[in-house]
Design goal:
Layout (H helix, E strand, L loop, with lengths): L1 E2 L24 E8 L2 E2 L3 E4 L10 H5 L2 E3 L2 E5 L5 E4 L1 H14 L7 H14 L11 E10 L12 E10 L8 E4 L17 H16 L4 E5 L7 E4 L3 E6 L2 E4 L10 H12 L3 E4 L4 H9 L3 E8 L3 E4 L2 E4 L2 E4 L7 H13 L10 E3 L4
Parallel strand pairs: 1-4, 10-11, 10-18, 14-15
Antiparallel strand pairs: 2-3, 2-4, 2-9, 5-8, 6-7, 6-8, 7-20, 8-9, 11-12, 13-14, 13-16, 16-17, 18-19
Helix pairs in contact: 5-7
Bound molecules: pyridoxal-5'-phosphate (PLP).
The site of pyridoxal-5'-phosphate has 13 residues, from α5.
Length: about 350
C-alpha cells in the first residue's frame, strides 16, 4: 500500500463538545479505485478534496454504500476496534444488493487498521468519545446511461466524536412514510435509504420529536426501527426486538445487545411487535423501558413515544436494562472489563 503522510497534523486536541457529530476529520484517508474489473492498489494519503465531473454516476443513480464503526481508547492507551469483521461482511452484503463489487478483506480490514494506527492520536481520550470510522463506496464512472457503473471508489475517513444523543429522545411512530419495503433496500446500508428518511424525520422534528419509529409499509402497525437505530422494548422483565428481515438493518450493536442480554441471564426474544400490543402493555404498566441501539448512539434510552396522539412516557428505571447493557457494552468496547465474546480487536502499532 502506498502511504503519503501529512507534513504536520491538524490535530490540536480540540474540545469536541461544540462540534456537530462527524464534522471534524482526521489527517488521513484511505482511497482505492475499482477500474477495468479489479481493485487497484489502495493508498493512504492526506484527507482532502476529490475531483469529479458532473457526469459522475453516483450523483445520478446513487450506487453508494457505507459503514459506521468506532475506534476506542482504553485507559492503557490501547486502540480498540469493535467486531470490525462484522462491518466488513455487512459492507459486502450491501455492495451485492446495490450491484457493486465486493471489497477484499485486506483492503477493508488491514487498510482500516493501518489508517487508524497512523491517525491514532485522533482517538479521543474521554470516557464516552471515540473515533468514528466511515468506510464508503460510490459509483464513479462518467456516464448518465441508467445502468450500473463500471468504476467505483472506496474510501475510509475518520472523525473524532462524542456520544450522539445528549438530551432526551422523544420519538413519534411514523404512520404515513416508510423507510423500507419488502424486496427493497432496507437491509443494505445504502445512501438512498437515508435520503428517503430525511423528509419524514424533518416533519417529526418540527413537531418536537428527536426521532421516528418506523413501521411496516403495509399497515403501519408493526415496529421496525427507530431512526438509524434498532429498537428494544422491556415488557415486564423480558426484552423484545423485531426479528431481522429485509426491511431491517442488521445492526451489530443489536446483535451484541442480544448476546450480552443472554449472557447476563435476561430473557430476550426476537419477535414481531404489534403497536396495539405495546399500547396494552403500556396501559397495564408492563412496558417499562424502550431503547435504541446503534454504533453512533451506542444505547439510547427513549423518553417517550407518541403513537397517534397517545403519549407513552418512560421514566428511568432503578434496575434499568438499558443502563446495564450500555455499561456492559462500553466496558468491553473501552476494555474496562473482560471481553468473554472476543469482540475487541487491538490495533497493533507499527
Ligand atoms: C447503521 C444502522 C443501524 C445500526 O447498526 P450498527 O451496526 O449497530 O451501527 C440501524 N439501523 C439503520 C437503518 C442503520 O443504517
Amino acid at each position: 500500500m502506498k502511504i503519503e503522510k501529512v507534513e504536520q497534523t491538524r490535530w490540536n486536541g480540540e474540545d469536541l463538545k461544540d462540534a456537530t457529530f462527524g464534522s471534524i476529520f482526521s489527517d488521513h484517508m484511505l482511497i482505492a479505485h475499482y477500474n477495468d474489473g479489479a481493485w487497484q492498489e489502495a493508498e493512504i494519503k492526506p484527507y482532502g478534496a476529490l475531483q469529479m465531473f458532473p457526469s459522475l454516476h453516483t450523483l445520478h443513480y446513487g450506487q453508494a454504500i457505507f459503514e459506521g464503526m468506532k475506534a476506542f481508547r482504553s485507559k492503557e492507551d490501547d486502540i480498540l476496534l469493535f467486531r470490525p469483521e462484522q462491518n466488513f461482511q455487512r459492507f459486502n452484503k450491501s455492495a451485492t444488493r446495490m450491484c457493486m463489487p465486493e471489497v477484499p478483506e485486506e483492503m477493508f480490514l488491514d487498510g482500516l487498521k493501518k489508517l487508524v494506527d497512523i491517525d491514532k492520536q485522533w482517538v479521543p481520550t474521554s470516557e464516552t468519545s471515540a473515533l468514528y470510522i466511515r468506510p464508503f463506496m460510490f459509483s464513479s464512472s462518467n456516464f448518465i446511461k441508467a445502468i450500473p457503473s463500471d468504476d467505483y471508489i472506496f474510501i475510509i475517513i475518520m472523525s473524532p466524536v462524542q456520544a450522539y444523543y445528549t438530551g432526551e429522545v422523544n420519538v413519534k411512530v411514523e404512520r404515513n412514510y416508510t423507510r423500507a419495503v419488502t424486496g427493497g433496500t432496507g437491509a443494505a446500508k445504502t445512501a438512498g435509504n437515508y435520503a428517503a428518511s430525511f423528509f419524514p424525520a424533518k416533519l417529526a422534528q418540527q413537531q418536537g420529536f428527536q426521532q421516528l419509529i418506523w413501521t411496516d409499509a403495509k399497515e403501519h402497525r408493526y415496529i421496525e426501527e427507530s431512526g438509524t437505530m434498532n429498537i428494544f422494548f422491556r415488557i415486564g422483565d423480558e426484552l423484545l426486538t423485531p426479528p431481522l428481515s429485509d426491511t431491517i438493518l442488521a445492526g451489530i450493536t443489536r446483535n451484541s445487545v442480544i448476546q450480552l442480554a443472554k449472557h447476563k441471564g435476561l430473557t430476550i426474544r426476537e419477535e414481531v411487535i404489534d403497536l396495539e400490543q405495546l399500547c396494552a402493555a403500556y396501559d397495564s404498566g408492563a412496558l417499562k423501558e424502550v431503547f435504541g441501539a446503534g454504533t453512533a448512539a451506542t444505547i439510547a434510552h427513549v423518553s417517550s413515544i407518541d403513537y397517534n396522539g397517545k403519549v407513552m412516557r418512560f421514566e428511568n428505571q432503578e434496575d434499568s436494562f438499558s443502563d446495564l447493557l450500555k455499561t456492559e457494552l462500553q466496558n468491553i468496547q473501552y476494555k474496562r472489563s473482560e471481553d468473554p465474546f472476543g469482540w475487541t480487536v487491538i490495533v497493533e502499532s507499527e
